[in-house]
Each structure stands twice: as C-alpha cells, then as structure tokens.
C-alpha cells in the first residue's frame, strides 16, 4: 500500500465518525434545551429535563446491541460494509426524529417514537466506534498506530462542534418561540444530506489490510465474541473501567452543563453553546499532539498523567462554573477541552490492542459500548438526579472525582500486564476456531506501550 493510502483512510474515518457523532450530540443538545417542553410538557422543568436525559441514555443502552451485531459481522465479513450500514442507520434515525410530531399533536406516541428513533441511533453508533478505529488503525504504519487510531476519536469533538453550530445557527435565524416549536427540527433533517455525503466517502475506502490478510489465511472465527471473552475476566474488567471516567466527564461537560447552566445559573444559552463548542474545538485540535506523544514515548505515562489531570479539573469545574462569572465559566469549559483529549485520544487503541485481529471488532465493541453506558450514558441523568436531591453540585463533583479515581487505578493495574499477543496476532487453532488466546502474564518493570 502506498503512503497516501493510510492518510486517505484516516480522513475517511474521521469524516464518517464526525457525521455519526453530529447526529448523536445533536440529540444531546436538544434533550438539554428542547425535548422537555416538546415531548414531556406535563412535567416540571426539572423532572422534564430528567425525562429527556433518560431518552438520551436509551441511546447508550442500545449501543451495545449495535456493537454486538456489527462486531460479529465486522469480524466475519469485513470492517467496511459494517461501517456503511452503521452510518445509514444513524442518518435514518436522526432524520425521522426531525419528523416526529410533539406531545400536543399525538400524545404519548411522541415520546415513544422519540425513544424508538434514539434506539436506532444507538445501534448505528454502536457499530461505528470500534469499526472506524480499527479501519484507521489497521491501515496505519507500525510506528504510528496511536496517531491513526486517534483520527476517528477526533470525530467526537468535531461532531459536537458541527451539531452545536448548526443548532445555534438555526436558532439565530428565527424567533425563540419558532425555534422551540419547529426550528429545532432543521439540524435533524439536515443529517440526511450530511450522511449521504458521508456514505459516498465511505464507499470509496478499501478494506482493512489486517482483515484481508486474516481471510486469506482462513482465520475467521465462527463466534468472535465468545473467543474475545477468553482474554480473561480481569483484563476485560480493567480495560472496561479505563474508559469510563473520560466518558462520564465528557458528557457532564458537553450535555448536562447546558441544562444546568441555563436553568440554574441563568447563563445565556448562546454563550454556553459557544463556550462548549470552543472547548470541543480545543479537544479536536490537541488530539494529534497527544497521539504523537503516545507513539514516540509510549502511552502509559501519558494516560495515567492525563487521568490525574482529569480528576483535578473535575474538582475545579463546578466551583468555577458556579461563580456566575462568564470568564471563569469559560475557563472551566476550556480546561475540560484541554484535559479530556489526553485520555480520550488513545483509549480506542488501548481497547483494540486487548484483542487479536480476528476477534478485535467484537471484543472492542463490547468494552467500548459497555464503558459508554457506565460512564456517559448515565452521567447526565445521575448529575440531574443528584442536583435535584441535594440542590448543589458538590455531590456531582465527588461522583466525577470518584469515577476518575477508579479509571486511573484501573489503568495503572492494566499497564502492569504484558500484552498477551502481538498487535496482528489471531485466535485461530486447528479445528477449534474459538481457541483460547495466550494467557496474560505480569510484566517486568520498564516501559509498556499500552
């Protein structure tokens, strides 16, 4: 494969994940600012917001289903075809959300249809995260695996920026009452056009060379998820917990802050959306810096230090935000934009390297989506419930600090394990295609590139 090919694949995966996350985050922004009144009008503002965040969490609950289905077929028939289908599902779900009548028009069917389309979104995104990371990483030069695995990760903040700008732009074009009534649908309907463009890009990419080599060598596994689980319960649990904190903190910062800041602290909605958007732009811009450091110096020290920085900033975040001072609020959000990417940029590569190539999609999907539920899927709902119960953000701060501590300790334990196989190894066996991978051993002191 010539040199430009990996960069072309990386750009294509970035474009696809950006569009998928645009659709997913658009829902998050709307659930924080619009859906409580459109789909739960009979509830109080706080309970309505909690109900809207509950539908937001449904998408996370659906993600493992998508991960299991797409992971199975991604390990058996290829990465490319599953990525095409996942993008189509996300586009269909988002477009139809823009067409759902509100509660006043069709009653209880409005939130039911909203939840149904959120499930479709979740299934689509469940197949995207692992697949895009593997497609880019498995095309990467050997000494730049973290860098290329980081390109799909950049789609997360890029999707948030795109969603917030289109949401804010649509609201600026009309009176607030018109936007709350029907204007919010415009960004959802635009996803049809954006996804069509994404599909044209995605259909032109080539299959992962790792998967192609695996099929040539007749190393396809009959039940890849079952084989993936054989890496060991301890290693699976630690890898799962490594990514939980980043997900939880990110969704409190990106989603909960919008509802809390406007309803409780009375910040201007436009200011908050622009501040979160600017912070996401910092997140996007710094990922290549951190992945390059990981490739040159190893990701172990960087990830642990990044976890500590994330914990410390969680302790400062709400005290700064609660001052009511726009400058300090901007500092709080910008700080998140700088510390979140340190761990986020390499967690995909960490999870991928837990598994051999012929069960990697299935195993990675399981851990990635499981961590998303435990972290980001529950975080806005937990934060809202804690705020409603206590009337203060102190409990939220300690919740985030505790989960950061768990992830940091898990990372330190995980990095003491020797990788159980080379990056491109497979689970093959002779007649038993579900052969158990080699056991995990304790590593000697020294650098570990996990």
TrEMBL record:
Record keyword Transport present: yes
Major facilitator superfamily (MFS) profile domain location: 9-422
Superkingdom assignment: Bacteria
Compartment annotation: Cell membrane
UniProt topology in membrane: Multi-pass membrane protein
Keywords associated with the record: Cell membrane, Membrane, Symport, Transmembrane, Transmembrane helix, Transport
One annotated GO molecular function: symporter activity
Pfam families per UniProt: MFS_1, Sugar_tr
Signal sequence, start to end: none
Job of this protein: May be a proton symporter involved in the uptake of osmolytes such as proline and glycine betaine.
Family to which the UniProt record says this protein belongs: Belongs to the major facilitator superfamily. Metabolite:H+ Symporter (MHS) family (TC 2.A.1.6) family.
Name used for this protein in its record: Putative proline/betaine transporter
Protein source organism: Amycolatopsis alba DSM 44262
């Amino acid at each position: 494969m010539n040199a430009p090919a990996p960069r072309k694949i990386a750009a294509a995966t970035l474009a696809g994940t950006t569009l998928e996350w645009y659709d997913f985050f658009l829902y998050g922004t709307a659930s924080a600012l619009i859906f409580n009144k459109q789909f739960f009008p009979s509830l109080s503002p706080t309970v309505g917001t909690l109900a809207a965040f509950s539908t937001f969490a449904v998408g996370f609950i659906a993600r493992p289903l998508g991960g299991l289905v797409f992971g199975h077929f991604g390990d058996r028939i290829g990465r490319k075809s599953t990525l095409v289908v996942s993008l189509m599902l996300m586009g269909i779900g988002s477009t139809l959300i823009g067409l759902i009548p509100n509660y006043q028009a069709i009653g209880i069917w409005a939130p039911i249809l909203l939840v149904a389309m959120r499930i479709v979104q979740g299934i689509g995104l469940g197949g995207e995260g692992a697949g895009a990371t593997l497609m880019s990483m498995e095309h990467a030069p050997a000494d730049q695996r973290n860098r290329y695995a980081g390109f799909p990760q950049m789609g997360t903040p890029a999707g948030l920026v795109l969603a917030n700008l289109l949401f804010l732009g649509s609201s600026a074009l009309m009176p607030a009452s018109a936007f709350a009534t029907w204007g919010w649908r415009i960004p959802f309907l635009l996803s049809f056009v954006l996804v069509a463009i994404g599909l044209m890009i995605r259909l032109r990419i080539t299959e992962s060379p790792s998967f192609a080599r695996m099929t040539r060598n007749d190393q396809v596994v009959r039940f890849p998820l079952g084989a993936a689980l054989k890496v060991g319960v301890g290693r699976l649990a630690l890898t799962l917990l490594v990514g939980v904190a980043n997900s939880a903190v990110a969704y409190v910062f990106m989603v909960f802050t919008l509802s809390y800041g406007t309803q409780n602290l009375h910040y201007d909605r436009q200011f908050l959306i622009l501040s979160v958007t600017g912070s996401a732009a910092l997140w996007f811009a710094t990922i290549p810096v951190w992945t390059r450091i990981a490739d040159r110096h190893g990701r172990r020290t960087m990830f642990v230090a990044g976890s500590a920085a994330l914990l410390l900033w969680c302790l400062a975040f709400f005290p700064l935000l609660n001052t009511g001072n726009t400058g300090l609020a901007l500092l709080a959000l910008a700080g998140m934009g700088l510390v979140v990417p340190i761990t986020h940029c390499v967690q995909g590569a960490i999870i991928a390297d837990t598994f051999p190539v012929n069960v990697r999609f299935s195993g990675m999907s399981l851990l990635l989506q499981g961590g998303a539920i435990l972290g980001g899927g529950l975080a806005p709902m937990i934060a809202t419930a804690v705020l409603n119960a206590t009337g203060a953000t102190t409990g939220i701060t300690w919740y985030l600090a505790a989960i950061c501590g768990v992830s940091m300790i898990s990372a330190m334990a995980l990095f003491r394990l020797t990788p159980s196989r080379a990056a491109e190894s497979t689970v093959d066996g002779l007649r038993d295609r579900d052969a158990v991978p080699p056991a995990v051993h304790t590593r000697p002191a020294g650098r570990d590139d996990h």
